[in-house]
Amino acid sequence: MSDTSKPSWATRTLAAQALGHIDAATQAVVPPIHVSTTYIRDPDNQYRTGNIYARPDNETVREAEAIIAMLEGAKVAMVLGSGMSAATAVFLSLAPGDHVVAPEVMYWGLRNWLINEGRHWGLDVELVDTSSLDALRAAVRPGKTRLVWLETPSNPLWTITDIRAAADIAHAAGARLAVDSTVATPLLTRPLALGADIVMHSATKYLNGHSDVIAGALAASQDDDFWKRIKRTRATLGQILGPLETYMLIRGMRTLDLRVRAACANAMELALRLSNHAQVAQVLYPGLPSHPGHDVALRQMTGGFGGMLSIRVRGGEAAAIATAAGVTLWKRATSLGGVESLIEHRASIEGAGSPCPPDLLRLSAGVEEVEDLFADLDRALRAAG
Ligand code: PLP
User: Fold this and answer.
1) Range 11-253 has CATH code 3.40.50.150
2) For residue 130, how far is its CA from the centre of ligand 1 (angstroms)?
3) What is the CATH code for 256-384?
């Protein structure tokens, strides 16, 4: 019987209080950080707490996982040592020979891993334009494809893929659908509610939000055999996040809602202003009607279009690099999703084989005053033009 006397609090309320857990021993409103690597066995040879050894078992990690499961509307969640370890734990839980479909435009580190190490491990990796449902339909092989991987919005063009339609295509072929939702955050898109089986985050980005923790997360709608296998992969490969970093991640997630709303508002305003800038040839942002994924983004993103945008600089590669060199407030660095705004000449980091145009600057909008952000960028664009 459901407890109707208990109100169902909003996600942002629950996140702000880190689910409101109070430490039973001390009544502390911030739970302790559990650092022990090992746990006492009961005299009758049992382990009734469920804790045996900290490579698989840590209570602080479980706290973070409960928050992530709540944010994603998931049954289960897992915290890992990085976004890459989260993604690769999924792929390494497949069997050699399994066919997987992934996007052409995606986080370059994972694309490179799939092409090099994933294939070396025996995966049959196929990269397609997942924003085209026809291309996706043509790529999946019924009975052979085990996993369709999406990233939406995807690095660095912010390509949008229709999660619901992709889930139907994957499931009809007998494959699972996993979504890297790092850029959308659980605030803007909930892939599991749209039919995905697994959602993945580089928690280094928005979930933590302060550019001071490398972390990853997975969440799933079912605690099935595949999930259990991923959990074993995390345990045996030692991919769990350390308790101190997990504590920082929990602290960061308390303000996820505030930070993401502020970043979305700044990104939208910057996208609009930069669309009219003489030195900017194109603005790539799913919130703009000119973006090819705008209609799908309108349907599947709620509350904003994210804090990430890219611009193509009219003067080409040299002008783009000069613009990045000319800013003083924006920080010239890789990564995204922190409270400080970052700018990056993306092709320089992605290297050969990247679909990133050489004149592209990737912008991670932080939470600073948008007038300051625009003024700094405007000055640098004009000087480089
Ligand atoms: N997925 C996306 C969309 C990313 O931007 C990144 C990192 O930039 C990753 C995954 C990898 O995450 P991490 O750096 O935490 O391993």
Assistant:
1) no
2) 19
3) 3.90.1150.10
